[in-house]
């Protein structure tokens, strides 16, 4: 992050060069539209929309967000409903569940527009099940939405 100028996560592209805020300079981090745009692009493209970051077994790592170290869908993830899976993604990025409006909007988009689910009926009740082949695409769509939320880029301090 500090040395490779060709990397999208290069701190210099975000106005945060390593050791640029030395003793005697202002303690605040410079932030302008270009540096924030570079920060957003790096976070979005290098982490949230990079499907390798969801996989397990990368660089001898254990389970990933969606897949285990053998690149199989995690049993825990497979057992989640669409609504619970959306909440799972929100909790892992924003540390909160999706609001009712976000759940409804994402549900309509993912089910009706993108068609990432199949309908199953159990004891006369219909519910949507994510297609096994669509987890990556569905996750990218939800993370694309999350990457545009302002709360991802700031931390609200807790009162004293």
Q: Any idea what the shape is?
A: globular
Secondary structure: number of strands: 2
Structural class, please? mainly alpha
Overall pLDDT level: 80
Helix fraction?
25-40%
Question: What gap, in angstroms, lies between the N and C termini?
Answer: 33 Å
Number of helices: 5
Q: Strand count, sense and closure of the main sheet?
A: 2 strands, antiparallel
Low-confidence stretches: none
Q: Give the tally of structural domains.
A: 2
Strand order of the largest sheet: 1-2
Order of helices and strands: HHHHEEH
Radius of gyration from the alpha-carbon trace, in angstroms: 19 Å
- Strand content of the residues, in percent? 5-15%
Quick structural overview:
The chain has 160 residues and is mainly alpha-helical.
Task: Describe the overall structure.
It is a single chain. The protein has 160 residues and is mainly alpha-helical. It is built from five helices and two strands; from the N terminus they run ααααββα. Helix 3 (82-93) crosses helix 5. It is globular.
